[in-house]
Amino acid sequence: MSFRIDVITIFPEYLAPLRQSLLGKAVERGLVEVGVHDLRQWTDDVHRTVDDAPYGGGAGMVMKPEPWGQALDAVRPAGTRLVVPTPAGEPFTQRMAAAWAAEPGLVFACGRYEGIDQRVADWAADAGPVSEVSIGDYVLAGGESAVLVMVEAVTRLLPGVVGNRESVEYDSHADGLLEGPSYTRPATWRGHEVPPVLLSGDHAAIARWRRAESLRRTASRRPDLLAALPADALTDAERDV
Ligand code: ADE
User: Fold this and answer.
1) Is the CB of 138 under 6 A from ligand 1?
2) What is the ipTM of this complex?
């Protein structure tokens, strides 16, 4: 069974990267199916209007509910999660990516302007799970680039998409910590040495060093992640560092 991804957007060309590189190969190999749909095909007027002024006044335009209703009737299989990227959403995380990768597929609804009439997400929740999510604390012009980010994070977790399971399991964020630094040959480069422990062949010492680097980097760059770890995630010695 392949993982099915549908994206509804007014800029279908923006999603061309979905057919390239790692994901493109997964599509070629039949692991993933991708459908990109132009929202304007579900408009009824000659101008193919998808937006209108906000009720209550204010800046910008809001995407009208009717084309979205028809689009989702046509595209979304019953029970499939609807993902709506929005800067006002809950933060997208590695944990979410892993949970979504275990589902049969996803439908993404890309908003532009000031977003989509809220009744679309509210109505869609009757037919299956709906996630309004943000990929970070900054504002993009629309949801398309956020969809590219989320699709890449989800599909690389699907069985068979990434050759090396370990490289997925030891990623930054997989254990709640950032990954430490990596090195390859040559052992000396422009006066900079590879940390000697990595050349020692002592696998226990290397594992201890990697764990320490991971903790050090997380404490310095993402203290919020350290604070959020469960009580038993760190040893007493690690907690004191
Ligand atoms: N649309 C606009 N900004 C966004 C963000 N930060 N995350 C997801 N979708 C968005």
Assistant:
1) yes
2) 0.98
